[in-house]
Structure to design on (543 residues):
């Protein structure tokens, strides 16, 4: 086993040094072009680039230029010539994008594969990180490190400030091949409780896991909806059981529910569902379930569970997205007297720690990079950098000034027609090519302006109290490692989920089956998977 790893590492070292060689050669292309220019124009030899001096504002090229762009993402967004964001960008930079992705096809992954197989590649390609990591080292994408360093001051500044993102973008060969979408604002989801029920029963918001039990028990036993029936369903779940499993966080456990199953114990990578905290959570959740504190149909009721159970005035507590959970108030306040579904901070877990497992990812897998066939990589990187300038970032976040927003006290404020229009703000913007998740930095202010007041209160409560747990780093795996993970990891999750469900529903006894469960995980290759994660994390920590 050790030998195998060693020879594998050796192969990697060789591959990296070879690639570093290729990378360096490619990087010389723009410099050579400049040298060529200097030779023709000896008078300009002392200035670095005569053409550059004449460029004003955000112009990247003196003459209008057109680059080809492959943008087909989430099986939903295909680059469209009518997108005003890109039209405006062309006006400001003199660089126009020509979309080449097949519009009629719906499967973004397939469209990407067909494009890659076609030989000649478009200049700029939007893709997932794993594809940049796979095809970058093979030479299909240009390493961007030196280009960023020399020609992309805004991206450079951002990556210098955000080491986590720089590391995320860095492939195992040490190169960056793409610039990705960076969401803003960590808070995403939190706990919501029927505050009016608490008030009615004379209870405080629960601050510990024991208090959560007491409150749910009271919701179940004391008829807070006042209809004389024991019909309350204290904890509700619209994610087919995932939100029930996620209650494990109250015992300090890490689960699959928010892709939180890997975590760090100092520098040691651990798999949440194998730890004693998980066992503790299963023991308690099966008890809660048996006592009717959790929806008996939690695993099957599906995505409408919240609307149904809140609408019937029987649901009392959940964990969900701030915006969507808060919107229940708009729906049910007129129907149910006193209805108040309020965000609350996470209760302390069994060890006394207050933490929130869910957060927005720091960076998305989708980004864009420059292909091997781009004629002028300097123009390409400058174009990607444009979207990281103040103007570019505002354009992709808010749209067109005077049309979609006005600058008020130095801040972009959406027009009433956008905020109160016929369609949701996000779909209005995306139809114009704004808030398309290419490589740009989102601005939470765009969202703040149309969030429900209670949702905003929840999000700010979580952000300001620093309860959101730092996410497990998004590691990068070598192609070999990824292959092993694809083979072995796929069997792990269904097995863990199946056992978890059986335990919570009481179909299997936790104490009696825990050891054989651990044994089965090891039989499925868990040890090797943990080693791969540890190795990837160790590389990450050193970057
Ligand atoms: Ca009742």
């Amino acid at each position: 086993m050790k030998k195998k790893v060693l020879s594998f590492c050796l192969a990697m070292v060789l591959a990296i040094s070879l690639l570093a060689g290729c990378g360096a050669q490619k990087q010389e292309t723009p410099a050579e072009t400049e040298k060529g220019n200097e030779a023709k124009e000896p008078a300009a030899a002392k200035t670095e680039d005569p053409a550059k001096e004449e460029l004003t504002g955000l112009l990247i090229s003196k003459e209008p230029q057109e680059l080809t762009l492959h943008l087909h993402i989430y099986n939903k967004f295909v680059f469209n010539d009518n997108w005003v964001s890109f039209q405006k960008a062309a006006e400001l930079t003199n660089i126009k994008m020509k979309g080449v992705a097949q519009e009629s096809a719906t499967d973004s992954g397939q469209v990407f594969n067909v494009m890659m197989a076609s030989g000649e590649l478009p200049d700029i390609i939007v893709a997932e990180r794993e594809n940049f990591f796979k095809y970058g080292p093979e030479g299909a994408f240009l390493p961007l490190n030196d280009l960023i360093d020399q020609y992309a001051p805004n991206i450079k500044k951002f990556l210098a400030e955000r080491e986590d993102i720089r590391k995320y973008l860095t492939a195992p060969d040490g190169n960056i091949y793409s610039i990705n979408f960076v969401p803003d604002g960590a808070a995403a989801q939190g706990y919501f409780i029927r505050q009016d029920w608490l008030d009615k029963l004379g209870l405080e918001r629960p601050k510990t896991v024991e208090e959560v039990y007491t409150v749910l028990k009271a919701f179940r036993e004391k008829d807070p909806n006042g209809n004389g029936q024991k019909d309350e369903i204290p904890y509700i779940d619209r994610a087919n059981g995932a939100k029930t499993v996620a209650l494990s966080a109250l015992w300090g456990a890490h689960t699959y529910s928010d892709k939180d199953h890997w975590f760090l114990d100092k520098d040691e990578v651990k798999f949440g569902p194998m730890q004693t905290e998980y066992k503790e959570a299963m023991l308690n959740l099966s008890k809660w379930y048996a006592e009717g504190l959790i929806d008996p149909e939690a695993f099957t009721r599906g995505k409408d569970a919240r609307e149904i159970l809140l609408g019937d005035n029987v649901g009392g507590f959940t964990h969900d997205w701030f915006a969507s959970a808060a919107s229940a108030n708009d729906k049910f306040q007129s129907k149910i007297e006193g209805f108040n579904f309020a965000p609350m901070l996470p209760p302390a877990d069994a060890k006394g720690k207050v933490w929130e497992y869910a957060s927005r990812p720091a960076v998305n897998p989708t980004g864009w990079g420059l292909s091997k066939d781009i004629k002028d990589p300097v123009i390409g990187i400058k174009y990607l950098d444009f979207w990281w300038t103040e103007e570019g970032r505002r354009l992709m976040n808010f749209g067109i000034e005077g049309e979609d927003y006005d600058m008020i006290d130095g801040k972009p404020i959406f027009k009433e027609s956008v905020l109160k229009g016929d369609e949701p703000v996000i779909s209005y913007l995306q139809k114009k090519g704004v808030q398309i998740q290419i490589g740009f930095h989102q601005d939470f202010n765009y969202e703040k302006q149309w969030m429900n007041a209670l949702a905003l209160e929840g999000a700010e409560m979580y952000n300001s109290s620093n309860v959101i747990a730092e996410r497990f780093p998004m590691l990068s795996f070598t192609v070999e490692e990824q292959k092993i993970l694809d083979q072995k990891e796929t069997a792990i999750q269904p097995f863990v989920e199946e056992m978890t469900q059986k335990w919570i529903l009481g179909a299997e006894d936790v104490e009696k089956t825990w050891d054989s469960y651990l044994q089965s995980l090891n039989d499925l290759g868990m040890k090797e998977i943990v080693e791969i994660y540890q190795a990837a994390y160790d590389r990450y920590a050193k970057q």
In short: Confidence is low (pLDDT under 50) at residues 1-47.
